[in-house]
Design brief:
There is one protein chain. The chain is of the alpha+beta class and 252 residues long. The protein is 48% helix and 19% strand. The strands form two sheets. A four-stranded antiparallel sheet has the order 1-4-8-2. It is globular and about 60 Å long. It starts with a strand and ends with a strand. Cell division factor that enhances FtsZ-ring assembly. Directly interacts with FtsZ and promotes bundling of FtsZ protofilaments, with a reduction in FtsZ GTPase activity.
Length: 252
């Protein structure tokens, strides 16, 4: 099965982008080749760009606190494991404390004050702009022993860790709140009216990847509209006319 996720608002869109970038970064920094570390830095700079919103940290702290309060209200519920509940609340509290300790400083501010990193960042915005004749100091760094480069990378990435942990935990809680159900798109088309008075934040769609089908999604607080398409040999998207079985979950 292949999974597609569609956010209902800009906040979740930003969190999903950050999560994806953190996954890429985590993969790249575990490797030792200089090309991997080059793109690890590139990904770190992308994270800084996405995280540059002034209200991002405050928004995440507010949501962490909201989720803690909601989970605390579940104590004593016989259908819920107290041990698991305490573990999740502890994780959220740890995320809140780590992020809150950074104060009003935006995530990545310390990195932005590193002149060497910012020189590399500026040159990376130019196609092929990090050649040895452009940035000899960066070229030299790429040829440091892998252990030295890794130590530098882990130090820089650690400054973004509270943000990464917070976003990861909040998105996991959001996803856990959605239950997948089977659906049928008649002649490739599917529409669903959403119940009034309830705000959904994320739509998740699963389909067998062997079908080769792709979803085109339009969603707002009132309606979900889904059209399944297929790519032809020239990569052109064509609407399908057959019925399509898939699964979806709505996360509030």
């Amino acid at each position: 099965m292949i999974l597609y996720e569609h956010p209902f608002n800009e906040r979740i869109r930003t969190w999903l982008r950050l999560e994806r970038l953190f996954v890429y970064l985590g993969t790249l920094i575990r490797r030792e080749e200089l090309i991997d570390h080059h793109y690890a830095l590139h990904t770190l700079f992308e994270i800084m760009d996405v995280a540059s919103r002034s209200d991002l940290k405050a928004d995440i702290l507010t949501e962490l606190d909201k989720q803690k309060q909601m989970l605390n209200s579940l104590h004593g519920n016989p259908a819920i494991s107290e041990e698991t509940l305490a573990q999740v609340i502890g994780q959220l509290q740890a995320c809140y404390d780590s992020l809150n300790q950074q104060g009003s400083i935006r995530a990545g501010t310390e990195l932005a004050n590193n002149e060497w990193l910012m020189a590399v960042r500026n040159r990376m915005s130019i196609p092929g702009g990090t050649c040895e004749f452009d940035l000899p100091a960066y070229h030299a760094w790429l040829h440091y022993p892998a252990k030295e480069r890794l130590a530098n990378l882990y130090g820089w990435v650690a400054q973004m860790a509270p943000l990464a942990d917070s976003v990861t935990n909040l998105l996991q809680l959001l996803r856990d709140g959605g239950i997948f159900q089977k659906a049928l798109a008649t002649q490739g088309q599917f529409e669903l009216s959403l119940p009034p008075g309830r705000t959904f934040q994320l739509l998740r769609i699963m389909i067998d990847e062997r079908t080769g089908l792709l979803p085109e999604i339009s969603a707002n607080r009132l309606l979900i509209s889904l059209r399944w398409v297929r790519q032809d040999a020239n990569w052109k998207l064509l609407s399908v006319k057959e019925d399509v079985d898939f699964e979806f979950a709505l996360c509030a």
